[in-house]
Fold this protein.
Amino acid sequence: MTNLDNVILKEPDITDMDQIYMMGADVWGKDQQKNEYLNECKNSIKYKSGQWFALYSENKLLSSLLVHRFDSHGDFNLCGLGSIATNLNYRNKGYGSLIIKKTVEFLSCTENVNIIFLYSDIDASFYENLGFIRIPKNLQKYDDSDCMAWVGSDLSLNNFLDDFDDFIPSYF
């Protein structure tokens, strides 16, 4: 087992991308052959438009996610997290939570991001435990996925929604 204290967050090496794509194959590529799924990932506009981050320990790839940057709105610096996945061999060990925590810390401290969106296709309480708040039901765009937001300590989600309720991002 890998120690949670001995992990690093970084942009993945290009040689790790197939392994990163395969982390989500059991959920996003259920009915596809491996080569077909990998080709779809490699050609995905969504995957090319974001910035990948990965969690490593002793050169083992544990978990990954994709950061999408959105235009700023006044004092609000926005981005979104998506394609969050953990290597099958390391699931249920805290690495999914850890990569989200480390990415939020990195974005808020180094890039002054103060609102981070994500769409929850799993039980939203997982993300609530990491500080994300569900966008009010009347502003949700989809019935089967909850848009959630992490809001920096100096802001209020309500202040953002009062000014920019039309900017809840579409699924990314």
